[in-house]
Amino acid sequence: MTSLGGWINQPPIERPHGFNDFQWLQTTSGKGLLRISDREMTVSPGQGFLLLPNEAHAYRPLVEPWGLRWITFSGNHAAQILKDLDLFKSEVFYLSNPDGTLKHLQEMILLQSNPHPSTGLEVSAEVYALLLDVYRYGSRTELRSRKQQMDVLAPVLRYMEQHYSRLITLAELAGLLQVSPQHICVLFQQSLGVRPIEYLTRIRIRKAKELLLLQPDAEVKSISVQVGYEHPSYFIKMFKRQEGLTPTAFRSIRLNAF
């Protein structure tokens, strides 16, 4: 890392000969206009842009205050690392996890505020982690494919499948991706068209249907607890809402069909 900072309202910048180092800049508020050679692009919250060294560029606010957080970096292997991550030209990225990259920038600020002998190495590790997040969560087009969206959510979906039998909070799920609870809801809506709690309910009811048939003598109360519902009445309500009949009726119909 060669420099680090941010602006509550970024002033206009004009660099006809570019800048000596690599740059990553991320919008936190407002909207700006970026010009790279003969290309012009707008940059809003949830977006950032990578600028390669010595390339003519300019940027200015369109909607103020245009908040920006930025880092500049260099190094003998920086160009090759970026190339390996498919980050080989100056461009704007849409971020499905903007909180993650901002968190890396904040961590660098904290490291710099209390330097010690290994600070340089730790900051370098954060720069690399930030670039990995741009690679993982960045998209050159506004709409990510369904597969890309599902890939981002995969750790959360696996976690829900493994821990459905106990209380799972929104903050807990958001923590798995290092995003805010609000952002995890956006990811679920974009990828699956439902809120996280609705998706968890589907898992629990699916597991309940399996248990009702595998444990034909078990009371509904027991099945309820096994799939994460403390109160049987609420479990029955949710089961009927999704399946159109009570757990007891479901079990009776399915078992008598064989």
From TrEMBL:
Superkingdom: Bacteria
This protein's UniProt keywords: DNA-binding, Transcription, Transcription regulation
Residue runs in coiled coils: none
SMART domains: HTH_ARAC (SM00342)
Gene3D superfamilies: Homeodomain-like, Regulatory protein AraC
InterPro entries in the cross-refs: AraC-bd, Homeodomain-like_sf, HTH-like, HTH_AraC, HTH_AraC-typ_CS, Tscrpt_reg_AraC-type_HTH
PROSITE patterns in alphabetical order: HTH_ARAC_FAMILY_1, HTH_ARAC_FAMILY_2
Gene Ontology molecular function, alphabetical: DNA-binding transcription factor activity; sequence-specific DNA binding
Domain annotation HTH araC/xylS-type: ranges: 154-253
Name of the protein described by the UniProt record: AraC family transcriptional regulator
Species annotation: Paenibacillus roseus
